């Protein structure tokens, strides 16, 4: 049944669809084209019937027939119900339309009534307003008169009121009353009554102004009172520039008091604090209130006032800065640099406020200048302190060197002294650098000023402090060399040696180390020319050289003095036959040995010329003695004095010229060679000034052989010692009345014994 | 250029004493005294012919002893004085004497150069300076001090009417006024070590040069004895002799035991530091411009030349009295070297 129902409904729908021209989609379209389909659009009853008749049996036909009948019936009933339903609806719709028509007619009538009423109302209202017009104008006039009268009353009452206000010292009220009335009075002053009021008011206000001025001048009144007074006076149209001046004069008194107060501060930090708290903040306050009073809107008055303020502040700050600078200059002790830097920082920071407030005044510039100057002075102080420290170290070293060495002949520990000296100086430099570094610390406000970034680092610290110190060290060294006394006693030779080593160390490492350290700590941005490391190094090297030369000279002098004395004080003509080596020669060898030890503590061995074994020494001495004898043999033959000089000349042709006081190299051998050269040359010159007897010559021979035995080991080229000694003996032979040389073997025996 | 080459003369003996023949202004003549203990000592009179560069010598015997110092009479060219040591009986005695050069040599010394070496003549003794009948000690004073005091050198000042003498002992230089025999100035510690020689500036009366064992040559103003005016430190051993040029006192000669002779030009402290001022007006424009260039060069004290012809210590140097551009130096091995001031410098000074 249900299916059937559904099919039926679909059929109906299909019909409706058909009616409304809505085509079914695809599949059904084909079916619709089928003319035999009873439900299709193109249904052809003839074809359907013929088809049915052709295809179906009778029974089937019967069935179709019944079926068809049944269907027709069903369709009919359906149709009937539909018609009924729709009919009812249509009826009710018709009813409604009719009703609406009625209602509209009624409404139209009412609207007409309303329009009539409105016209009436308009008419009435127009009539009323026309009647009321006259009255209204009158009232307006009356109220105008009332206000005028009140104003007049105010004016007439004004003097009394002002007086009362002044009595109650409500000055602001009085001034505002007066300000209100002033223009009116001004306008109507030709009328006698108003004029009277005006004069009264003016008298009262003048009195008020006087009172205000008095209060203003009163030293004890507070800044708040002052500013109130000024405001009132300004609104009383007092001349602004006079007020400015007076205000500033008032401020000057207080600031000056602060300044005089400052002088008592003991501690630098306290001083700066007090200066900042008292002077600067008061000045700020003053400037701020002044500006709020006089410079509110840009006008020529404001400009004038601004200018006045600037000059005023400049004047006052001059005194302050002078005071600060004086105080800072007193800050001499180099120890508490952090305190100074903190004080400077605070000082500098606090100056920012007034300079921001009053852009015209040069607080900031002056402040920075002071800081820069103080920093420079500080650097100079540090340099002096470093120099003093170095001098102190030198004094210590001198004392250590001069201290009597009781236990035996132990040489003073030069190495330790040197290490101590250079170490402590280096430490001092480092600590000074650290203190100076405070100036450029990040948390210090003025460290980012261009001066502190550039010039302070490169010119100030690097050049002014470190380089200058190194130069002064060299200078000090040089001073030891050409001290006017130069008798050798003025400067202990060991100090010269020590300083020379110090300078040499500076040249090789210390200078570059210190400068690298400085450059690292003070990364200067400015690229102004700085002294290069190489210049300093060469300076240090030349100083070291000078010192060493001086050392050689003075040590040589000590030995040669001994030799000279020994030659000069003896009567060589009548001396007895030599039995041993003279004590002086032993002293000489001892001295040179001790010098050798001392120099060995500080300087490297150095290079000597090849052979230095014991065997070579022996053969050498044999060779020399044989040659000596050969030469004497020549000079004994009386007929040939020429040959001697010829021979010695020929010999000299082949030997190098010996520079006696020449520069030495930085090693032990070269130093000792220098000393020995000086000593032996002196020996030679002294011998030439004397006349010898036979034994005198022999003594010289013995002495020379002894020296030969012991000195060869110290020098770079033993030939040199040999040459010089040879010449000594030769000269002695020349200066001998009876030149009979001693047997070489005897000499050797004597030397080995002694 | 060849003229500038040094002329060398060798003596047989060692020698220390050298002097120019001061009274002789025509010929260039030097006196050299030898030192020999075992042979007769000699005085060589050396003539130098500037044109031909030839040396003529005359040998005079000095029997008295070895000569340590010699000096010529400034008025009579045939008189000379020597200091000598005499050794006899193993005793050494020092003495001084005045001698006269024998007549034959005075007259025709130029004509007989060949045989002068063969027939050596003996000096004629005028007197011994030992306070006997011929000579008398005019004045004396004693220097008092600690220890043995020895004078190493003495020198007459050519100024003040020759009333002043300067002496050196140890490291001190003293000035004496011989009228009162009082000390007039004293330069303590003039040199670090022994002072070896002195010389007065011939044109500037207060200026004095000294040299010594500290290898330095110092120039002093005797009015201010605290500081030397100038110090030279060029030698590498003791400086034994210092001499101002007689006419051009910027030229200073020094001899040292480092076997060198150094000629220095001390313009800044000479009497003619602006040598050309006198002729200023005579100069034409063209010369003026040349001169401007010259004067623009700063006046600098400089070493003119270092002479290294010697091979032994040089104990004496001396300017010629006849030719101001010529000098001699003597080293211990008996070598006498005659040199000239470089021509460029000579013209520079003269023009």
UniProtKB/TrEMBL annotation, chain A:
<keyword id="KW-0813">Transport</keyword>
<dbReference type="GO" id="GO:0032456">
    <property type="term" value="P:endocytic recycling"/>
</dbReference>
<dbReference type="GO" id="GO:0015031">
    <property type="term" value="P:protein transport"/>
</dbReference>
<keyword id="KW-0175">Coiled coil</keyword>
<dbReference type="GO" id="GO:0006869">
    <property type="term" value="P:lipid transport"/>
</dbReference>
<dbReference type="GO" id="GO:0048193">
    <property type="term" value="P:Golgi vesicle transport"/>
</dbReference>
<dbReference type="GO" id="GO:0007030">
    <property type="term" value="P:Golgi organization"/>
</dbReference>
<dbReference type="InterPro" id="IPR014812">
    <property type="entry name" value="Vps51"/>
</dbReference>
<dbReference type="GO" id="GO:0005829">
    <property type="term" value="C:cytosol"/>
</dbReference>
<dbReference type="GO" id="GO:0007041">
    <property type="term" value="P:lysosomal transport"/>
</dbReference>
<keyword id="KW-0653">Protein transport</keyword>
<dbReference type="InterPro" id="IPR016159">
    <property type="entry name" value="Cullin_repeat-like_dom_sf"/>
</dbReference>
<keyword id="KW-0967">Endosome</keyword>
<dbReference type="Pfam" id="PF08700">
    <property type="entry name" value="VPS51_Exo84_N"/>
</dbReference>
<protein>
    <recommendedName>
        <fullName>Vacuolar protein sorting-associated protein 51 homolog</fullName>
    </recommendedName>
</protein>
<dbReference type="GO" id="GO:0016020">
    <property type="term" value="C:membrane"/>
</dbReference>
<dbReference type="GO" id="GO:0000938">
    <property type="term" value="C:GARP complex"/>
</dbReference>
<keyword id="KW-0445">Lipid transport</keyword>
<comment type="subunit">
    <text>Component of the Golgi-associated retrograde protein (GARP) complex. Component of the endosome-associated retrograde protein (EARP) complex.</text>
</comment>
<keyword id="KW-0333">Golgi apparatus</keyword>
<comment type="similarity">
    <text>Belongs to the VPS51 family.</text>
</comment>
<dbReference type="GO" id="GO:0042147">
    <property type="term" value="P:retrograde transport, endosome to Golgi"/>
</dbReference>
Automatic annotation (TrEMBL), chain B:
<comment type="similarity">
    <text>Belongs to the WD repeat EIPR1 family.</text>
</comment>
<feature type="compositionally biased region" description="Basic and acidic residues">
    <location>
        <begin position="288"/>
        <end position="299"/>
    </location>
</feature>
<dbReference type="InterPro" id="IPR040323">
    <property type="entry name" value="EIPR1"/>
</dbReference>
<keyword id="KW-0853">WD repeat</keyword>
<dbReference type="InterPro" id="IPR059104">
    <property type="entry name" value="Beta-prop_EIPR1-like"/>
</dbReference>
<dbReference type="Pfam" id="PF00400">
    <property type="entry name" value="WD40"/>
</dbReference>
<dbReference type="Pfam" id="PF23609">
    <property type="entry name" value="Beta-prop_EIPR1"/>
</dbReference>
<dbReference type="GO" id="GO:0016567">
    <property type="term" value="P:protein ubiquitination"/>
</dbReference>
<feature type="region of interest" description="Disordered">
    <location>
        <begin position="275"/>
        <end position="300"/>
    </location>
</feature>
<dbReference type="InterPro" id="IPR001680">
    <property type="entry name" value="WD40_rpt"/>
</dbReference>
<protein>
    <recommendedName>
        <fullName>EIPR1-like beta-propeller domain-containing protein</fullName>
    </recommendedName>
</protein>
<dbReference type="InterPro" id="IPR019775">
    <property type="entry name" value="WD40_repeat_CS"/>
</dbReference>
<keyword id="KW-0677">Repeat</keyword>
<feature type="domain" description="EIPR1-like beta-propeller">
    <location>
        <begin position="7"/>
        <end position="109"/>
    </location>
</feature>
<dbReference type="InterPro" id="IPR036322">
    <property type="entry name" value="WD40_repeat_dom_sf"/>
</dbReference>
<dbReference type="InterPro" id="IPR015943">
    <property type="entry name" value="WD40/YVTN_repeat-like_dom_sf"/>
</dbReference>
<feature type="domain" description="EIPR1-like beta-propeller">
    <location>
        <begin position="147"/>
        <end position="263"/>
    </location>
</feature>
<feature type="repeat" description="WD">
    <location>
        <begin position="188"/>
        <end position="224"/>
    </location>
</feature>
């Amino acid at each position: 049944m249900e299916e059937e129902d559904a099919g039926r409904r679909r059929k109906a729908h299909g019909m409706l669809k058909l009616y409304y021209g809505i085509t079914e989609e695809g599949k059904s379209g084909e079916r619709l084209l089928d003319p035999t389909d009873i439900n299709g659009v193109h249904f052809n009853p003839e074809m359907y019937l013929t088809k049915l008749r052709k295809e179906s049996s009778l029974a089937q036909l019967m069935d179709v027939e019944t079926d068809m009948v049944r269907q027709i019936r069903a369709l009919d009933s359906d149709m009937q119900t539909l018609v009924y339903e729709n009919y009812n609806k249509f009826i009710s719709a018709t009813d409604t339309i009719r009703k609406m028509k009625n209602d509209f007619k009624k409404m139209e009538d009412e609207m007409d009534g309303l329009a009539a009423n409105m016209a009436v109302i308009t008419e009435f209202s127009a009539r009323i307003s026309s009647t009321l017009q006259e009255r209204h104008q009158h009232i307006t006039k009356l109220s105008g008169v009332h206000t005028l009268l009140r104003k007049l009353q105010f004016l007439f009452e004004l003097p009394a009121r002002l007086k009362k206000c002044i009595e109650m010292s409500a000055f602001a009220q009085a001034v505002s009353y007066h300000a209100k009335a002033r223009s009116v009075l001004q306008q109507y002053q030709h009328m006698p009554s108003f004029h009277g009021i005006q004069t009264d008011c003016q008298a009262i206000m003048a009195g008020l102004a006087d009172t205000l001025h008095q209060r203003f001048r009163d030293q004890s009144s507070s800044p708040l009172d002052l500013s109130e007074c000024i405001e009132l006076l300004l609104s009383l149209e007092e001349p602004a520039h006079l007020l400015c001046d007076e205000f500033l004069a008032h401020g000057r008194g207080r600031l000056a008091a602060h300044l005089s107060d400052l002088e008592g501060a003991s501690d630098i930090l306290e001083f700066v604090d007090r200066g900042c708290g008292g002077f600067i903040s008061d000045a700020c306050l003053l400037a701020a209130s002044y500006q709020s009073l006089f410079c509110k809107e840009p006008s020529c008055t404001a400009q004038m006032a601004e200018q006045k303020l600037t000059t005023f502040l400049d004047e006052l700050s001059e005194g302050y800065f002078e005071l600060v600078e004086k105080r800072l200059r007193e800050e001499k002790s180099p120890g508490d640099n952090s305190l100074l830097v903190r004080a400077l920082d605070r000082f500098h920071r606090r100056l920012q406020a007034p300079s921001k407030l009053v852009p015209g005044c040069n607080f900031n510039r002056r402040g920075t200048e002071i800081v820069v100057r103080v920093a420079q002075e500080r650097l100079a102080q540090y340099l002096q302190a470093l120099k003093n420290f170095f001098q102190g170290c030198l004094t210590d070293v001198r004392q250590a060197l001069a201290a009597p060495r009781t236990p035996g002949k132990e040489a003073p520990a030069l190495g330790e002294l040197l290490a101590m000296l250079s170490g402590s100086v280096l430490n001092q430099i480092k600590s000074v650098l650290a203190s100076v570094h405070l100036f450029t610390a990040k948390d210090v406000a003025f460290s980012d000023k261009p001066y502190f970034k550039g010039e302070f680092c490169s010119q100030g610290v690097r050049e002014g402090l470190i380089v200058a110190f190194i130069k002064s060290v060299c200078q000090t060294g040089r001073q030891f060399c050409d001290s006017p006394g130069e008798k050798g006693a003025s400067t202990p030779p060991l100090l010269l040696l020590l300083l020379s080593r110090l300078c040499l160390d500076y040249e090789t490492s210390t200078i570059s180390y210190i400068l690298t350290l400085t450059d690292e700590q003070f990364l200067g941005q400015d690229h102004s020319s700085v002294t290069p490391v190489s210049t300093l190094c060469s300076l240090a090297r030349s100083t070291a050289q000078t010192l060493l030369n001086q050392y050689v000279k003075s040590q040589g002098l000590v030995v040669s003095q001994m030799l000279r004395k020994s030659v000069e004080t003896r009567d060589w003509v009548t001396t007895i036959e030599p039995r041993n080596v003279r004590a002086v020669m032993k002293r000489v060898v001892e001295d040179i040995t001790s010098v050798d030890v001392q120099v060995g503590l500080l300087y490297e061995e150095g290079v000597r010329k090849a052979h230095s074994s014991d065997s070579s020494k022996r053969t050498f001495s044999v060779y020399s003695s044989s040659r000596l004898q050969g030469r004497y043999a020549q000079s004994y033959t009386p007929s040939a004095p020429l040959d001697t000089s010829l021979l010695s000349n020929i010999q000299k042709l082949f030997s190098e010229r010996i520079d006696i006081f020449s520069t030495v190299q930085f090693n032990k051998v070269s130093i000792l060679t220098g000393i020995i050269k000086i000593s032996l040359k002196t020996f030679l010159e002294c011998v030439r000034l004397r006349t010898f007897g036979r034994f005198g010559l022999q003594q010289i021979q013995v002495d020379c052989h002894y020296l030969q035995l012991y000195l060869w080991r110290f020098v770079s080229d033993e030939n040199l010692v040999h040459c010089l000694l040879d010449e000594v003996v030769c000269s002695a032979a020349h200066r001998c009345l009876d030149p009979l040389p001693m047997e070489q073997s005897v000499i050797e025996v004597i030397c080995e014994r002694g | 250029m060849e003229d500038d080459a040094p002329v060398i003369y060798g003596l047989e003996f060692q020698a220390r004493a050298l002097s120019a023949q001061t009274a002789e202004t025509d010929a260039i003549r030097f006196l050299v005294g030898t030192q020999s203990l075992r042979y007769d000592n000699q005085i060589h009179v050396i003539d130098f012919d500037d044109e031909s560069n030839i040396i003529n010598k005359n040998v005079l015997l000095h029997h008295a002893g070895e000569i340590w110092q010699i000096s010529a009479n400034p008025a009579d060219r045939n008189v000379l004085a020597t200091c000598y040591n005499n050794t006899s009986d193993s005793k050494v005695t020092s003495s001084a004497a005045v001698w006269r050069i024998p007549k034959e040599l005075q007259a025709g010394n130029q004509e007989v150069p060949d045989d002068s070496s063969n027939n050596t003549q003996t000096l004629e003794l005028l007197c011994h300076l030992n306070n006997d009948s011929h000579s008398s000690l005019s004045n004396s004073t004693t220097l008092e001090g600690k220890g043995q005091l020895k004078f190493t050198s003495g020198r007459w000042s050519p100024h003040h009417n020759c009333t002043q003498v300067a002496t050196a002992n140890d490291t001190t230089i003293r000035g004496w006024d011989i009228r009162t025999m009082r000390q007039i100035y004293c330069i303590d510690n003039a040199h670090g070590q022994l002072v070896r020689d002195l010389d007065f500036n011939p044109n500037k009366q207060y200026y004095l040069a000294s040299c010594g064992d500290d290898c330095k040559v110092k120039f002093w103003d005797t009015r201010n004895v605290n500081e030397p005016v100038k110090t030279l430190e060029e030698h590498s051993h003791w400086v034994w002799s210092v001499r101002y040029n007689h006419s051009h006192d910027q030229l200073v000669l020094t001899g040292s035991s480092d076997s060198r002779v150094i000629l220095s030009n001390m313009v800044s402290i000479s009497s003619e530091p602006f040598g050309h001022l006198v002729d200023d007006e005579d100069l034409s424009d063209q010369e003026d411009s040349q001169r401007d260039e010259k004067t623009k060069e700063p006046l600098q004290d400089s070493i003119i030349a270092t002479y290294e012809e010697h091979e032994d210590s040089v104990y004496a140097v001396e300017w010629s009295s006849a030719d101001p551009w010529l000098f001699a130096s003597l080293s211990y091995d008996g070598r006498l070297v005659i040199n000239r001031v470089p021509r460029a410098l000579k013209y520079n000074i003269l023009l």
